[in-house]
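Chain X:
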Amino acid sequence: MTIVEHIDARGTQHCETTTLGVLLRHQGVDFSEPMLFGLGSGLSFIYWDSKTLPFPFLGGRVKPFELTKNLAGVLGLDLLVAETTSPRRAWQNVAALLDAGRPVGLQLDSYHLDYFSTKVHFGGHMVAMYGYDDERAYLVDTAPQGGAVTTGLAGLARARAERGPMTARHRSFTVTVPAAPASPKDRIVPAIRTCAHSFLNPPIANLGHRGIEKAAQQIPRWLRRSENPGEDLPRAAALMEKAGTGGALFRNLYRDFLDECTRLIDHSHLRTGHRLYTEAAALWTRVAALIAAAGESGDPENLVEAGSALRELSRVETAAMHALGKL
């Protein structure tokens, strides 16, 4: 058996920030989850629908692993990433680091993990691995998934080998904190401005503030779009509130990040951004409730109201990002 010592197996809300928190705390660096999310410029929006999807997807963050790369750049971390098509090499990459006393981040498909009660394929899931024995892997996942958990090695191998949307080739990674790490206070403004620029200047209409406008146009049609609205719409709402988002499609996390920042930096634009994202978070929770109600009742007026709320959200978030971009 190999178990890395001194692991703080604190599960938080979102899988990627949970994983990064474990890796950083093992080196003596402890940031709040909202601070990790914000410094990684994690907030975004995507509305995605295609003929290959059974139902549209709403996302509230940047694509998997981009947050990790952003955070490494902001804090000057040495990010070591290994990818391979070989399951044998993939295991060797991880086992060597664990044997050397280092926890490892993994990107995998959560469908194959023993402890996941909801069996849905998601290839962008991340966990921190801190040990193994002959049969099981020792992991840290989000608090809703149990925090410190174990899963069978065979299932872990399948999860890492899975191919499909958002998957990676047996990706594993570590971060190393420099001897003189950057002060988070000094990196807050650049991280916020990066996030604001991306949100306000999306390359396609599905992303950022343009994506929210598109969602406002499309969601009122969701009862017709779904073959099983009684399942699809409540599931979409649950994903917005509960699937590792921290609630309100990650807006709660960004609201709390901005709140933490206002205690470090005295700036009117920052306070404006925090006020507007407090408003936006409440509106996103309202949108999720309306979508769920539409699926349960079949009443299209709930979706019409959700569309109106989304148009207001586009306005509110655009105003917030304009203010934050002026920092």
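Chain Y:
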Amino acid sequence: MSTTEESKRRAEALVPKFRFERVLNQDEAGRRINLYGQVDSQPALLVLERAPFPDAPEYLSALPANLRSITNLGNNDIYAWFLGSGGPVLQNNEKDKFADFKISLIWPCTEKHIKKHSRQGVRFVTETPEIYRDKVRPFMQVNREEGRLNWVYNIIEGRKEIEDVIYRTPLGRDGDEGFLLLPNLHWDRKTIDALHLLGIVERRDLWSLRDLKKKHLPWLRHMRAKLIDATVKTYPQIEEDQLKLFCHYQPTYYHFHIHVVHVMLEANSTQSLGKAVGMDSIIEQLESMVGGEETGMDSISISYTVGEASDLWTDIFEPLKNDGRASLPQ
């Protein structure tokens, strides 16, 4: 055996000898953890990260059927989400206690779902008030009419996810000012540093932050305070200054909603510049606008990222760019 092979084997033999003592840190939404312990009675530090999924067909085709346990967290319309385990089955009915997979299922999915979840290039565009009025607003209307909001209406009207609702104003009591709060379907409901909740308004005339106007300011401030208060009461280990609230633009679906997340949640692409707009920034923007109560977010230009496979790019911004009429950032 060569010296190189011997060195590799000696190194590989160290990991099974690790004797755990305590957790030093856990970050990136629970995907990395730093452990302190000992190897052969000497101090050791073990950093564990979830490795990228292999893309080998033989692995992926066998994975779903070979999960050790699957626990449904909820389902609504075509969406369902689960916790699953790829490890050994534990004793004493604890097989779901240490699930290492968060699984989402969309079935039956549409071509738009496929495009959204496919790898694609990204563009940074500026949507002027004119582009919004003439191109994007009609695009939103078409999307709303395709039935993609059924799952949202199921939640609002109490047909689905009733047991998950953390806070809500009684349905219909507050008219246009009703709203509710519940866990986002992508959160595992356990990892506090990755907390992700969703505030959904009852009214259906607000499609996105573009519909917000100065007349909505008292309601927005009230809703912000209630969402924060409900979150810290439900999860007392969290303090107010450990939360951030934002809206997406463009949003994934056209019914106004607010994301409530822990500040430690990894700032991935959905929270980055060109996607997330802080709720405080929205309120401040509206406060500073010159004009009457009907003055709103539809009067400004907004820059954001769009995927090259999205209809927003292929149907709106790419043609505008090719025509030389798009307002693209310099």
